[in-house]
Amino acid sequence: MSANMVAVLYLISALMFIFALRGLSHPESSRLGNIFGIVGMVIAIITTLMFKSVLSYVEIGAAIIVGGAIGTFIALRIEMTALPQLVAAFHSLVGIAAVFVAAAAFYDPASFGIGTIGAIGTSSLIEMSIGTFIGAITFSGSVLAFGKLQGTVSGKPIVFKFQHAINALILLFIAFLIIIFCINQSPSIFWTIVAVSILLGFLVVIPIGGADMPVVVSMLNSYSGWAACGIGFTLSNNLLIITGALVGASGAILSYIMSKGMNRSIISVVLGGFGGEQAASASGDNSDKIVKQGNAEDAAYIMKNADSVIIVPGYGMAVAQAQHALREMGDILKKEGINVRYAIHPVAGRMPGHMNVLLAEANVPYEEVLELDEINHDFPMTEVSFVIGANDVTNPAAKTDESSPIYGMPILDVERSQTVLFVKRSMATGYSGVDNELFYRDNTTMLFGDAKKMCEDIVKSLA
Amino acid sequence: MEAHSSEVFVIGLTVFFLACIIGYYVVWSVTPALHSPLMGVTNAISSVIIVGAILAAGPLGHDTSKIFGIIGVVLASINIFGGFIVTYRMLSMFKKKPKKEQKD
């Protein structure tokens, strides 16, 4: 195949990837978009297999079958509540794959047309080391993020003295190593860059935890794209550059949206440490305030007699796997002629859009699931807000208490509805460590218990 | 493939910046409800680095670079299949409201 033919086929593949993302602008077009993505990938792989230098079809075929089987197995088995972990794990694979490709290019530069061993062009070396660096950070950062999301590593941010200074020094050291690498092209320096970058990846994610995880997951998504870009520059491959840039941009935008959803700058999230320390300002001592408690029957009675109910799900719903029971409850209310809708805060859950997927899994039609700015002005006209597994995203302190760590965060105005029902396991604070004054209001009824059990009990009482 | 010159780099840079701009506009048009599938699909397509891994794994023989290439192909394939399938699973769950008359 001629070089031009290859370039054209790679271009088609890149366009397919753009259409794949474009399809996601609406649920109806999204499935077709995914097919575009698959077609693009097939074109890219077949085109590459047609290269004159590619001869070992058996080994490559076997590798694709093995990898494909593992990927298929995992993707079919995974619970939708465990999506954030899965995505983090997948990011780590992109990162480490980028390192392996860079290493392969370093050990056999002739196959990639970037020179011969010991005589690789300087620009290729720089691109290669940057690709390796980002790939290795993506790898270790994602492994740690996976551990935190899975619960194998403490989800709490770990902060220590001189953390940022140490990270900065390591970064400088890597820059120094890259310069040395460009001069002597030594394999031991290459692997030192890999090792130190892996260390840096761990250190970058270590201080971030809890509610900041959606930002971390999006950030690593972005990194995996830039890693692909770095490899694309090394191999002078436009397809890799385009795809990497698309993915990098996507992750960066998601990180931005998530940070904005918490009214925090990306920088402050990256620097980390949020959510671990007990908030000093937690608007005084609330131990003497009275909390109104209710049970499933009370909740059923209140909702049955309402005209409109807005359900506000949060991460607690995912943990309790309550989405199916919740949908059942919603269905019964709808049959009673009650207007039932769902309100999603941008940072609800542990990854962008997590709640939407869980509700979709439970067969909630997507038209009933609304974003913060679509539904927030409806709360004053709503009789009942049913908050399940969410806390910080409803805390009015974000609007009133300037000393609160969550001050300025956009919240769902559940306090404006006539009655607020709060399903919670205990009075514990949310990830921000801030007490929620809503719990003590007259129009709030706390429903203590497991979210799933509570929904099931309400369903029974409604019947 | 031609030698790696500064020209090639500048072309790559041009492509890079234009792709970033396309990415910016395309991703902002994604509806927030589909941000999880977006991560799934970007995850799958970023594994297009399988192209580099295949090139490394291509030659006959068993040198270091080939072994790295094979490992790269396996890892990227996990992601490609896993990413597209999990995205498919997510997207197939997003359903419209059933019409009144179709109700059970």
Largest interface: A-B, 122 and 87 residues
Instruction: State the separation between the terminal residues of chain A, measured CA to CA.
Output: 68 Å
Q: What amount of the residues of chain A lies in strands?
A: 5-15%
What ranges of chain A have pLDDT less than 50 throughout 5 or more consecutive residues? Answer: 275-284
Computed CA radius of gyration of chain A, to the nearest angstrom: 25 Å
The Cα radius of gyration of chain B reads 20 Å
Order of helices and strands of chain A: HHHHEEHHHHHHHEHHEHEHEHEEH
Mass-distribution shape of chain A: elongated
Instruction: State the oligomer.
Output: heterodimer
What summary fits the major beta sheet of chain B?
Answer: none
Structural write-up:
The complex is a heterodimer of chains A (about 475) and B (about 100). Chain A has helices at about 5-20, 25-50, 55-75, 85-105, 120-150, 165-185, 185-205, 215-235, 240-260, 265-270, 295-305, 315-320, 325-335, 355-360, 370-375, 395-400, 450-460, and strands at about 115, 120, 310-315, 340-345, 370, 385-390, 420-425, 445-450. By secondary structure, chain A is α/β, with parallel strands linked by helices. In chain A, the strands form two sheets. In chain A, strands 5-4-3-6-7-8 form a six-stranded parallel sheet. In chain A, strands 1-2 form a two-stranded antiparallel ribbon. In chain A, helix 5 (about 120-150) packs antiparallel against helix 6, helix 5 (about 120-150) packs parallel to helix 7 and helix 11 (about 295-305) packs across helix 17. Chain A is elongated. Chain A starts with a helix and ends with a helix. Chain B is flat. In chain B, helix 3 packs antiparallel against helix 4. The relative contact order of chain B is 0.10. Chain B is mainly α. Classes of the chains: A alpha/beta (about 475), B mainly alpha (about 100). At the A-B interface, helix 1, helix 2, helix 3, helix 4 and helix 8 of A face helix 1, helix 2, helix 3 and helix 4 of B.
